[in-house]
Amino acid sequence: MSKQQIPVIVVAGFLGSGKTTLLNHLLHNSHGARIGVVVNDFGQVNIDAMLVAGQADSMVSLSNGCLCCVADTSELDEMLDRLARPQARIDVIVIEASGLAEPQTLVRMVVTSENPRLAYGGLVEVVDAVEFEATRQRHPELDKHLRLADLVVLNKVDRIDDTERLLLLNELEHLAPGTPVLPTSHGQVDTALLFDHEPRTEDLSQPRQLTLDELLREHDADHPHEHLHTAYDSVSFTESAPLHPGRLMDFLRDRPTGVYRIKGFVHFGLPDHDQRFTLHTVGSHLQVSRSPWPRRENRLNQLVLIGAELDAEQVRRRLAECVDTDPASTEERSMLRLLAALDEPQPEN
Ligand SMILES: Nc1nc2c(ncn2[C@@H]2O[C@H](COP(=O)(O)OP(=O)(O)OP(=O)(O)O)[C@@H](O)[C@H]2O)c(=O)[nH]1
Questions:
Q1: Residue among 90, 92, 96, 94 at smallest CA distance from 68
Q2: N or C: which end of the chain has fewer CB within 10 A?
Q3: Ligand 1 binding pocket, CB closer than 6 Å
Q4: Ligand 1, residues 20, 125, 145, 185: which to mutate, most atoms within 8 A of Cβ?
Q5: Closest residue by Cα to residue 145 from 101, 185, 178
Q6: Which domains does the chain have, with CATH numbers?
Q7: Residue nearest to atom 3 of ligand 1 (CA)
Q8: What's this protein's family per the entry (predicted)?
């Protein structure tokens, strides 16, 4: 994802699964990132605090009707364009789908957005651990939504016991093989899993608008609450030898179970492709860009993989298998799949 692009995350889930709770949690724990929100009905979000924080413009809403049912995409496009304006200084946009929205349609709308400042940031499907079976019976399409999701948040685990939790995790693995599942209560997803918190570069000594979570931090200091327990892991991989592009693409296509995000730099042993390649994946979505290696910087593959219940050893072993042991005989065409994923203008014919 290039630096100026704003990730757009779609949060879906059936009625009452905990989407608004998750969204409120993100807003309170954004670590300084400015979050723009698109909702169908903002009644449940703490709009008063949003207004106090001067962030009203970071929220747009569709007062009636369902986002994914709007006949054409122009309304959503317009909302996203408003949030993506440079003056809004938004770092990440979250779309909360209404409980009955078709996430597929929303995801398509985001992916096909023509706004170059926006990048699809993944589909998060919130599932109610208590109501899971009942919801599946009422809405068999839930199975399809799970398969589409980049991350499944198994919410309300405070209301089930360990045996039920294990059964549900097995069932989710069966319904959506390989998709990371994050058991939580009260939507307490660590925001680092969903987006990067890059420190803002603005001059903090100057007067400026506070973000919502900065505003609430004072309040939280006075009202201590339970600490987040992080149910996700991250695995780092550092290797100086070049990677084999074809094997790396196989790895990215068939990622170890639980991997949700991958970010970092890689290099290859082909003389015509000796730049630094930057990789970003969110769920199954891959973005690749390239740039010359900074002067005096050693060539190094440095990847961070983030997900739920990762098997660190397996992740590192699978990545080690991507090392190109004989770059001299690696064929140029092994770069093709990777080049096809490049996020740069294609030469005109
Ligand atoms: N016990 C428990 N209750 C939760 C949890 N997460 C959310 N709730 C409660 O569940 C109810 C529904 O949560 P919401 O966040 O409003 O759910 P939603 O998905 O936004 O609901 P809709 O907007 O109707 O689709 C609220 O009363 C929440 O307080 C949880 O992890 N555990």
A1: 96
A2: C
A3: 13, 15-21, 44, 99, 155-156, 158-159, 185-187
A4: 20
A5: 101
A6: 6-222 (3.40.50.300), 232-340 (3.30.1220.10)
A7: 156
A8: Belongs to the SIMIBI class G3E GTPase family. ZNG1 subfamily.
Q: Letter for the amino acid at 141?
A: E
Alpha-carbon torsion (213, 281, 154, 109), positive or negative: positive
- Main-chain phi, psi angles of 133, to 5 degrees: -65, -45
Cβ atoms of 131 and 38 within 8 Å: the answer is no
Split at pLDDT 50, 70, 90, the class of 167 is: very high
Which pLDDT does position 4 carry in this prediction?
A: 67
Give the separation between CA 321 and CA 315, rounded to whole angstroms: 10
Backbone angles phi, psi at 13, to 5 degrees: 150, 150
d(CA 280, ligand 1 centre) in Å: 31
pLDDT at 308: 75
In the prediction, which pLDDT does 101 show? 65
Answer yes or no: is pLDDT of 314 > 90: yes
Retrieve residue 184's tokens. Answer: 């939580």
The pair phi, psi for residue 6, each rounded to 5°, is: -105, 120
What is the per-residue pLDDT for 230?
41
User: Which residue intervals of the chain are DSSP H helices?
Assistant: 19-28, 47-52, 74-84, 103-111, 132-138, 142-148, 162-175, 191-194, 212-222, 245-253, 312-320, 336-340
Atom of ligand 1 nearest to the CA of 41: 23
Asked if 49 and 212 touch (Cβ cutoff 8 Å), the reply is yes
Give the 3-state secondary structure of 10-72.
Answer: EEEECCCCCHHHHHHHHHHCCCCCCEEEEECCHHHCCHHHHHHCCCHHHEEECCCCCHHHCCC
How far does the centroid of ligand 1 lie from the alpha carbon of residue 85, in Å? Answer: 32
How many other C-beta atoms lie within 10 A of the C-beta of residue 21? Answer: 19
Q: Which residues pair with 81 in a beta bridge?
A: none
Q: What is the rounded CA–CA span in Å between residue 317 and residue 267?
A: 18
Q: Rounded distance, CA 314 to CA 346, Å? A: 36
Collapse the DSSP code of 308 into the 3-class scheme (helix H, G, I; strand E, B; otherwise coil) and give the result: strand
Please list, in sequence order, all residues whose beta carbon lies within 8 angstroms of the beta carbon of residue 299, skipping any fewer than 6 positions away: 240, 242, 267, 276, 293
